[in-house]
Amino acid sequence: MMADLGSGLRQLLQSLGAAGAQAARSQRVAEVHVRWKCAVEAVYRDSASLVLDHTNGVYIMKPEQANDPMAARVPAGKTLLVVYCDDAMIRSDIDARQEMLKIRLNEQGEHVALFSIKPARFDMKARHPFREEVARAAQQAAQAARTPEPLISSEAAARLREQAADVEDKRLRESILKALEASEKPGSSKNGKSGL
């Protein structure tokens, strides 16, 4: 169903003439980027942002469109995936996991037969199509780290205060209340540890 919708949308955009053809190309680029991002996130999980940050270009194309020696080995009806990366270690790791990435792309309806990983050169190194998304994710993670949740809910703290009032030993009662107060203010802790 999703492939039919995508191909129908592509045909509609192409029927609009030159502007429609450009819109169809832009839509295809966005589609390829989303599929690549989903595949990388599924395979790399927590390290996906690093891989996406060093990805300078992703192209999924028919063999006759590719200017790549590997294109001759692509079977009919299949496509060639070309990935440009600016970091040798990332290229090496993508190469090691290319079969898992192809499986993830196939699950999304993108039937990739061959995978070509190339170093980003010249002006390609300046392209970072996924960097904005990576920066946004890092900003959200930093925001979450800056606003830690209290160690104890206000309802539980109220119940503990009531119970602490019944403690006969004054020093013990004060210690319990002091510990309770520290657990309600996570921002006052040192080195991310409880102030208890």
Q: For the largest beta sheet, what order do the strands appear in spatially?
A: 1-2-3
Taken in chain order, the helices and strands follow as: HHHEEHHEHHH
Strand portion, in percent? 5-15%
Question: How many DSSP helices?
Answer: 8
Structural class: mainly alpha
Oligomer: single chain
Strand count, sense and barrel status of the largest sheet are: 3 strands, mixed
Low-confidence stretches: none
**Helix content bin:** 55-70%
The total of beta strands comes to: 3
Gap from first CA to last CA: 57 Å
Question: Can you characterise this structure?
Answer:
This protein has two domains: 2-144, no CATH class; 154-188, no CATH class. It is 56% helix and 11% strand. The chain is built from eight helices and three strands, in the order H-H-H-E-E-H-H-E-H-H-H. Helix 1 (2-15) runs antiparallel to helix 2, helix 2 packs across helix 5 (98-107) and helix 7 packs antiparallel against helix 8. The protein is elongated and about 85 Å long. GO terms for molecular function: transferase activity.
